[in-house]
Amino acid sequence: MKHANSTSHLSVKERAKNAVQDEFLRNAVRFTTDRLRNRKQAVTESFGQWEVWRERGEQIRAHTIANLDAYLAQFIERLEAVGVHVHFAVDSSEATDAVLSIIQSKKARKVVKSKSMVSEEIHINQHLEANGITVVETDLGEYIIQLAKETPSHIIIPSIHKSREQIRDLFENAGATQLTTETRDLTAFARRTLRSEFLSAEIGITGCNFGIAETGSVVLFTNEGNADMVMNLPPTHIVLMGMERILPTLADLEVMAHLLPKSATGQNVITYMSMLTGPKRSADRDGATEMHVVILDNGRSRQLGDEQFQAVLHCIRCGACLNVCPVYRHMGGHAYGSVYPGPIGAVLSPLLEKGEQYSDLPYASSLCGACFEACPVRIPLHDMLVQHRQKLVASGHGNPSERMAFKGYENIFAKPGRYRLSIKMARKFLSPLAKEGKIRSSFGPLAGWTKSRDFPMLPKQSFREIWPSLKRE
Amino acid sequence: MKVSLFITCMVDSIFPQVGVSMTKILQSLGCEVLFPSSQTCCGQPAFNSGYSKEARSVAISMINAFQESDVIVSPSGSCVGMIRHFYPELFSDSPEWHEKALSLANRTYEFSQFLIQILKVETLGARFPYTVTYHPSCHGSRLLGIEDEPIRLLKQVEELQLIELPYAQDCCGFGGTFAVKMSEISGAMVEEKTSHVLESGASVLVGTDMGCLMNIGGRLSRKGSNVRVMHLAELLYEGRQLAKGVDAQ
Ligand code: SF4
């Protein structure tokens, strides 16, 4: 499938430039992110002690990741003990192969899916469709995106960039008649259409919010209840999960059950928290008779033991950092060009397999720190963005003219004498460009600035030149 | 108290009146103000772009410049944040320089925090009969931890009417080299910020970081707005002059 929003040959700057011109997109994204972050603020304030909860969340995730090998081994052992088939995939192609061979061994033709970012990461739909298998997304947002032949632009709200009108049009193309743009009408159509798919599919694929090491349970947080159908109705259930998605105990899950929905959508509790421990037992009334868990590495294990980036594995994929990120809010998710957008995407994407193509994403940030402040497990995303830049510069892959500019900066600013001289020179150089104390010229590096704002002319005297007259007062 | 100014390269070269105001306020609060003249820049432009080696050279010259200073005060939360948080880290491989960096970090204060936390200023004797809105800069508030210090100072000013800035905590889009590198997004961000400033209806926008204020001010100027953009130190100094019946300008 060719994706409508595939613009990966462009730089993030170029994609951003295009996205910013799309007023419609920006309004849709800003409207929803504002609603989400305002609700989050209200719910965390009324819940109280939010900082204490965040610290607890950070401790749990840091402890888990620091001991990931042991907890992962325990999780796998428990999974197998309850009759689950476990597959470990080093990269996306191993993961897609594992899924495909399970499906082919069942001679299955149709898959229903609930929302899973790992499934996006490994591009499973494209692979299955290329092998003649029909894939139906059953999460409302994902269903919309699938009809539009696009990719998600937010990790929690995949269709955040779509308006009601666009959704109605997509549904009409999919066979709906006389739809209004009312939420009730739109969801009713999706529910009707998807119901028959649940019943006819042979395979259900879900993601996994948390895997509990002590019990071997797979835990899913959803709002539509579709994941329960996906994992219970088809005879075979495949779970896709990143290898870092582990929690040691059910007690840890309680903390996450507070942190995740409150941070993600400002909901006090999630609508459905489903916990699945193994396939259907003989006494169970329903459930898949066969269950597989595919655990994906895809570059994650490289971060273990890395002082700078290990904490990226603490992420619980709540999307709060996207909602508060001014860059995300103005350019939307597709402009990142990666499956994972926003601040977490800018940090994570370059670290995963084939991450080199995302090496410019860490520059898509003003380093305002709103992401860190929003993160329920206190990941220092803003520091990691700088560390990515340092890594790129140290590896010699930085932009050559920028490298020269900073060499020049060092030569001037590390030498007080040269610095004083350069202020005088800058004043001389800029003065012909100024009109009434303002510079609007789009000369050289000023262009980026002066396109949308004025630059002040340097005053006749710098502070250090005025200083002698001040000091004796 | 002997107070050394770290004026920042931006205030030195573009906004000297901020430094003048700060000096006069500190002097009137009884400080002996010094200006170590070999200071330049905190190194943040290079550091934030990933050029830590270049940032280190600049940091060394800063550490040397302030070697003899007891207390250092600066009109920028962002530059102080750089010194407090990143200088020690920049020298993590050299015990000698790490020690020096830590010592500088512990002696350096942002202007509003210095006034409230160290000088414990309770009455400024200022009057400023205008509507004012305050933009909390990201690095000052999130990195350095400036909380309500600027607001507490503004509340000491008579006749000043403080108006809340909608979405005050949102970044203005400055971000140093970000404003040039990702200029379209930065432009969209500053457009949103200025529309919130105008929406507040205030006649003055005040802040504690000239980078952000130059950005917001530059956009307001482009839009032809007559909202006045001031650093907190300028507003306080002008307010004191007004209270004394002297024209500050
Ligand atoms: S980095 Fe933090 S805020 Fe962002 S998605 Fe992950 S957990 Fe949520």
At a glance:
Chain A: GO terms for molecular function: 4 iron, 4 sulfur cluster binding; metal ion binding. The complex is a heterodimer of chains A (473) and B (249). Chain A has 473 residues and is of the alpha/beta class.
Alpha-carbon distance between the termini of chain B? Answer: 28 Å
Q: Say which CATH homologous superfamily of the largest domain in chain A is assigned.
A: NagB/RpiA/CoA transferase-like
Helix content of chain A: 40-55%
Average per-residue pLDDT of chain B, rounded, comes to 94
Give the N-terminus to C-terminus distance of chain A in angstroms.
75 Å
Major sheet description of chain B: 4 strands, parallel
Number of E-state strands of chain A: 13
Name the shape of chain B in a single word. Answer: globular
Question: How many H/I helical runs of chain B?
Answer: 13
Kindly report the greatest chain-chain contact and the residue count on each side. A-B, 68 and 71 residues
> Mind telling me which CATH architecture of the largest domain in chain A this is?
3-Layer(aba) Sandwich
Helix count, DSSP H or I runs of 4 or more residues of chain A? 21
Q: Class of the largest domain in chain B, according to the CATH hierarchy?
A: Alpha Beta
Low-confidence stretches of chain B: none
Largest sheet of chain A: 6 strands, parallel
CATH architecture of the largest domain in chain B: 3-Layer(aba) Sandwich
| CATH C-level category of the largest domain in chain A | Alpha Beta
Percentage of residues in DSSP E strands of chain A? 5-15%
Helix content of chain B: 40-55%
Organism (chain A): Alicyclobacillus tolerans
Protein name (chain A): L-lactate dehydrogenase complex protein LldF
InterPro entries (chain A): 4Fe4S_Fe-S-bd, 4Fe4S_Fe_S_CS, FTHF_cligase-like_sf, Helical_ferredxn, LUD_dom, LutB/LldF, LutB_C, NagB/RpiA_transferase-like
Keywords (chain A): 4Fe-4S, Electron transport, Iron, Iron-sulfur, Metal-binding, Repeat, Transport
